[in-house]
């Protein structure tokens, strides 16, 4: 057996993953604006612009399309500009986020237009004219310029008028739905009471990374077949099995090279590299096939041999073995990392059980000998949260769950049992272990306080905004009906934008 080359790191298999149903549109867009770290917008847009009309689906029979100047195009440009202003690194993933957020905005817009049609809401020509007169591109020295307006092509003017008409109608419908909703004294009092009491906690944490290497090695040795690896190239066909058979015949006969067939015919993320996947673990192929016997046949191929056409969960694939399978060496740090990563995803219960046992031992020690002493016994110094009330969902208007020492705590704010347990503690009490993401936490109540006058004054001034935000979210979730939505975003994006 030949010595394997350094395995190529792979973070994905050639499968395609479907896009889930859209639920809360505003929060998706907000998340994009807050966490986005890069932008490729203009190149991605220019590659499909210039008169193109791209359909991403429909809502209640209304096409959701991109074409220059329409609602979807302008939403894309708006989001893209916001991200581009950050002047950060370019990634393909962020472009996809921008396109999808624009699509989601447009779905909500179309839902509002359906409501407008049902209710007979319309905007007069003079109303559109006033919006045109305020359009930034037609302003010179703060005033509408007829010269700038007339210098624009009639096609662009027409598209702009239609966009503004729809935007005004949509805005009117939303204003009618949740407008300036008056806030009652009872609502205001309730929202202010939610601000307190605030509690602060000391805590220790047991990380998934603390799971012993010896345990990782034992798991790997007991499941060694899953961590065999082989160097592969792949061609993925999603049109038909007959097409895949024809392409395989060309590859086997060497009529066309496997690499050229992959570049020209394959529909996966490896096509641009001539189909080269690099070194692939056995378990990385498991999600693609219902029967692992198929994977066994791939691993039985000789070097340079091409597989039969194999049906997968996303189409048909043809593999070529570039280098023969290699058995795992569990003294190799890279292999142990792969085993640990696998366990973190697929065997979380095993790791949680181990860490929970350690955490329960810590709880017993802390309750008998004191929190600080028990922390020292596990080589930790207690950390401290900020003050927060019962703030389910980490609403930004109240103190939020989290700590500079570990931001994973923020995820606990979406679990009722987290607040139930922590706010039932008395001063000095120690909690039971709480699993949050890749950590097991143990908390001790430090102290409690009422919210400050400044905090209450701030909240009082923002109560109308809070009510409006919650109402908007409810409107969006209520009036977007899944059975009216034809969501072709993922397939269209992959085919048209990415050319896959």
Provide a descriptive summary of the structure in words.
The chain has 500 residues and is an alpha+beta fold. It has three domains: 36-180 and 482-497, Triger factor/SurA peptide-binding fold, CATH 1.10.4030; 198-208 and 348-450, Chitinase A, domain 3; 229-326, Chitinase A, domain 3, CATH 3.10.50.40. The chain has 19 helices and 13 strands. The strands form four sheets. A four-stranded antiparallel β-sheet has the order 10-5-12-11, with helices on one face. It has a four-stranded antiparallel β-sheet with strand order 7-6-9-8. A three-stranded antiparallel β-sheet has the order 2-1-13. A hairpin with a 2-residue loop joins strand 11 (434-436) and strand 12 (439-449). Helix 5 packs across helix 7 and helix 14 crosses helix 15 (348-369).
What descriptors fit this protein?
500 residues, alpha+beta, Triger factor/SurA peptide-binding fold, Chitinase A, domain 3, 3 domains, four-stranded antiparallel beta sheet, 47% helix
């Amino acid at each position: 057996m030949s010595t394997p080359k350094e395995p190529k790191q792979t973070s994905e298999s050639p499968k395609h993953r479907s896009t889930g149903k859209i639920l809360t549109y505003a929060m998706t867009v907000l998340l994009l604006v807050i966490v986005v770290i890069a932008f490729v917008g203009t190149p991605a847009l220019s590659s499909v612009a210039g008169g193109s009309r791209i359909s991403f689906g429909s809502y209640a029979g209304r096409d959701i399309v991109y074409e220059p100047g329409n609602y979807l195009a302008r939403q894309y440009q708006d989001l893209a500009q916001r991200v581009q202003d950050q002047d950060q690194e370019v990634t393909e993933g962020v472009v996809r986020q921008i396109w999808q957020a624009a699509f989601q905005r447009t779905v909500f817009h179309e839902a509002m237009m359906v409501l407008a049609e049902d209710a007979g809401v319309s905007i007069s020509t003079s109303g559109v004219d006033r919006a045109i007169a305020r359009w930034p591109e037609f302003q010179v020295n703060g005033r509408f310029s007829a010269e700038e307006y007339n210098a624009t092509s009639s096609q662009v003017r027409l598209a702009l008028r239609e966009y503004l008409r729809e935007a005004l109608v949509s805005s009117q419908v939303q204003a009618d739905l949740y407008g300036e909703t008056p806030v009652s004294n009872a609502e205001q009092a309730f929202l202010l009471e939610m601000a307190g009491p605030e509690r602060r906690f000391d805590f220790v944490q047991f990380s998934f990374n603390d799971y012993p290497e010896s345990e990782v090695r034992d798991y790997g040795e007991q499941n060694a077949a899953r961590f065999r690896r082989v160097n592969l190239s792949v061609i993925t066909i999603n049109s038909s099995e007959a097409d895949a058979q024809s392409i395989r015949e060309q590859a086997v006969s060497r009529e066309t090279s496997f690499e050229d067939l992959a570049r020209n015919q394959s529909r996966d993320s490896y096509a641009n590299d001539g189909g080269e996947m690099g070194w692939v673990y056995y378990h990385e192929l498991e999600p693609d096939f219902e029967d692992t016997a198929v994977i066994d046949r791939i691993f039985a191929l000789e070097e340079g041999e091409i597989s039969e056409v194999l049906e997968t969960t996303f189409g048909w694939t043809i593999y070529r073995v570039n280098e023969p399978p290699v058995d795992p060496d569990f003294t190799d740090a890279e292999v142990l990392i792969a085993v640990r990563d696998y366990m973190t995803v697929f065997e979380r219960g095993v790791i949680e059980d181990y860490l929970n046992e350690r955490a329960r031992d810590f709880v017993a020690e802390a309750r008998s000998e004191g929190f600080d002493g028990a922390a020292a016994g596990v080589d930790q110094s207690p950390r401290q949260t900020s003050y927060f009330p019962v703030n389910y969902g980490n609403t930004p208007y109240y103190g939020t769950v989290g700590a500079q020492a570990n931001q994973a705590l923020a995820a606990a704010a979406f679990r009722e049992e987290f607040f139930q347990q922590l706010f039932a503690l008395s001063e000095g009490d120690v909690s039971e272990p709480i699993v949050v993401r890749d950590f097991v936490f143990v908390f001790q109540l430090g102290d409690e306080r009422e919210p400050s006058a400044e905090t209450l004054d701030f909240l009082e001034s923002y109560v109308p905004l809070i009510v409006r935000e919650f109402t908007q979210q409810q409107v969006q979730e209520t009036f977007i009906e899944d059975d009216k939505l034809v969501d072709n975003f993922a397939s269209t994006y992959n085919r048209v934008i990415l050319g896959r």
